[in-house]
Specification:
The protein is an alpha/beta fold and 395 residues long. It has three domains: 23-234, Rossmann fold (3-Layer(aba) Sandwich); 239-318; 322-394, Winged helix-like DNA-binding domain superfamily/Winged helix DNA-binding domain (Arc Repressor Mutant, subunit A, Orthogonal Bundle), CATH 1.10.10. The chain has 16 helices and eight strands. The strands form two sheets. A five-stranded parallel beta sheet has the order 2-3-4-1-5, sandwiched between helices. Helix 3 (85-100) runs parallel beside helix 5 (151-167), helix 10 packs parallel to helix 12 (295-319) and helix 13 (323-339) packs across helix 16 (388-394). The longest helix is centred in the last third of the chain and has 25 residues, at 295-319.
Length: 395
């Protein structure tokens, strides 16, 4: 098969040729955009799920929907130990540029830009990362607006003015936040508080976040009303028919077919996880000689796909861990063999290693901070990466 015509796209955040299994989310977001533009109340949205299920791809696609409706948009990727003030300022700057050039009143645009400048300059030097950013705007900072230093109050004032600018054009603003679980608890609380106030105002601005499975728990811990503030969308693996569509429909555009048994084997190897679907699809295409693609082609390609995942998807994450953290993950993997890689009790991990639970807290906390494991319930931990336990057991 011609590798140049290979239609599959395994990559971090790279959109596959067919975004299978996400029609419901896309349709619901279209409704959300229409309702907000019409002045009707709607909640912000949070996508959550394991790594490799396509959260970033879906987040980017939702942003594309907003752009097509002429909304102002901006996107940030949260990072541990970094304040969100500068990234939010940069995202708002992008939104102002998208709606500002269509606004009939340049003075109104400049006024909002001045508020953004005051918000950004209030950053001073981020104590945790030493970051400073000045918006490339030829306007003076607005004194006394979004510059108090209280992040929640400043976000409310900035969002209010930005939403009013979009409302003049009968559109809205959508800010997209990837890796949202990496925002500190205090700043999550400030962001939730600002979203709460904006929603009560009926302002046309929403936040769309994406993160790991424990993100809803983190949001609820920051503000008690966060459970009702957002619409939570679980992004999971694809069912059998949707995974099959992700393989067959792109191939069909190149005149290539799959034997049904080959699709069964592919699904068994990938469990329907979108990143794996693309990785195994790409390797199978390259291994196949002609159409239709057979079980033999899939089995021939499987070691190549597995080796690529072992290096780029699993191995890179494993190498980030310290020896103590690797020991902790190996214990989780051993125990997972008995529990089907379900959530593992931290007490069981300690018992397996012959250690006291308190002595393992630094390793567990380090893994959570690095996004390798998560704790959706007290006393339990799980891998953030599907099949990671299986990978560790195979080493």
């Amino acid at each position: 098969m011609d590798p140049i015509r290979n239609p599959y796209a395994p990559g971090a955040g790279q959109r596959p040729p067919l975004l299978a299994g996400r029609d419901r989310e896309l349709q619901q977001f279209e409704i959300t955009l229409e309702r907000i533009a019409a002045g009707r109340p709607e909640r912000s949205m949070v996508l959550f799920g394991l790594r490799g299920v396509g959260k970033t791809v879906l987040l980017n696609t939702l942003r594309g929907q907003a752009v097509r409706r002429a909304w102002g948009t901006g996107k940030i990727e949260a990072r541990p130990d970094q304040s969100i003030r500068v990234p939010v300022a940069q995202a708002v700057h992008a939104a102002i540029r998208e709606v500002g050039h269509r606004h009939r009143d340049p003075e109104r645009v400049d006024a909002v830009a001045g508020v953004l400048r005051s918000f950004a300059l209030r950053t001073d030097v981020d104590a945790r990362k030493g970051r400073r950013w000045t918006p490339p705007l030829d306007v003076p900072a607005t004194q006394g607006r979004a510059d108090s230093g209280d992040l929640e109050l400043d976000l409310v004032e900035l969002f209010t003015d930005l939403a009013a600018l979009a409302r003049d054009l009968s559109v809205g603003v959508a800010l997209f936040i990837d890796e949202m679980q990496d925002i500190s608890t205090d700043e999550l609380a400030a962001l939730c508080g600002a979203c709460h106030e904006i929603s009560q105002q009926g302002a046309p601005l929403i936040v769309v976040g994406a993160g790991l499975p424990h993100l809803p728990v983190a949001l609820a811990a920051s503000k008690s009303y966060a459970e009702r503030l957002f619409r939570y969308v679980s992004v999971d693996r694809l069912p059998r028919d949707m995974a099959a569509s992700a393989w067959t429909r792109p191939a069909a555009t190149e005149g290539v077919q799959f034997e049904p048994d080959a699709l069964d084997v592919l699904y068994r190897l990938t469990d329907g996880y979108p990143y794996f679907v693309q990785a195994y699809g790409k390797a199978t295409w390259d291994a196949a000689v002609t159409s239709p693609i057979t079980v033999r082609d899939v089995l021939t390609a499987a070691p190549e796909a597995g080796a690529e995942l072992a290096v780029g998807f699993f191995g890179a994450r494993f190498e980030r861990a310290t020896p103590a953290e690797r020991e902790y993950m190996s214990a989780m993997a051993d125990l997972g063999a008995e529990h089907g890689d379900a959530a593992i009790s931290t007490a069981e991990v300690a018992k397996h290693l012959g250690r006291k639970p308190q002595s393992l807290s630094p390793a567990r906390d380090g893994l959570i901070k690095k996004g390798l494991v998560y704790s959706a319930q007290r006393g339990k931990v799980s891998f953030t990466v599907p099949h990671f336990g299986m990978f560790l057991r195979s080493r």
